[in-house]
Automatic annotation (TrEMBL):
Domain (Carboxymuconolactone decarboxylase-like) ranges: 48-119
Top-level taxon in the UniProt lineage: Bacteria
Gene3D superfamilies (alphabetical): AhpD-like
UniProt organism field: [Mycobacterium] wendilense
Pfam families referenced in this protein's UniProt entry, alphabetically: CMD
InterPro entries found in the cross-reference section: 4CMD/NDH-1_regulator (IPR052512), AhpD-like (IPR029032), CMD-like (IPR003779)
Alphabetical list of SUPFAM superfamilies matching this protein: AhpD-like (SSF69118)
Designated name of the protein: Carboxymuconolactone decarboxylase family protein
Length: 129
């Protein structure tokens, strides 16, 4: 039987290498305490464990879908993480730029411009670029 938390942590580690210590066993990973402290656990199990672990779409394709949704939502903080994930999942900078261009026609210029800023941050580039 699969453990969604372990699956999610494994996917999270693969897509965002170095964010969690590699030598820390999954059972010892904690995302803190306090207000809404379970939110990240919900994301690890439900999003990374259940959705990103599914067959049917490649991780590269899931990155494209996810970026499109996040751009349309204007979810800048999540976009920044997912632009890094998309690079890890094989998308090139030119392809990421095309995602932003394409989104401008469907989500609007402000959403695409916000996505450009998030991508620049994620890729470690100057915001004025």
């Amino acid at each position: 039987m699969t453990n969604l938390r372990d699956d999610g942590l494994n996917v999270f580690r693969e897509m965002l290498p170095g964010l969690l210590p590699d030598n820390l066993p999954n059972k010892d990973v904690s995302f803190g305490t306090g207000f809404a402290s379970e939110l990240m656990e919900i994301g690890i199990e439900g999003i990374f464990g259940r959705l990103w672990s599914r067959e049917g779409l490649s991780r590269r394709d899931r990155s494209l879908v996810t970026l499109g949704i996040l751009i349309a939502l204007g979810a800048e903080m999540e976009m920044e993480s997912h632009f890094r994930i998309a690079r890890q999942n094989g998308l090139t900078e030119d392809e990421l730029a095309e995602v932003i261009y394409h989104a401008s026609g469907y989500a609007g210029f402000p959403a695409a411009n916000t996505a450009k800023d998030a991508a620049l941050k994620a890729l470690g580039k100057n915001i004025q670029a």
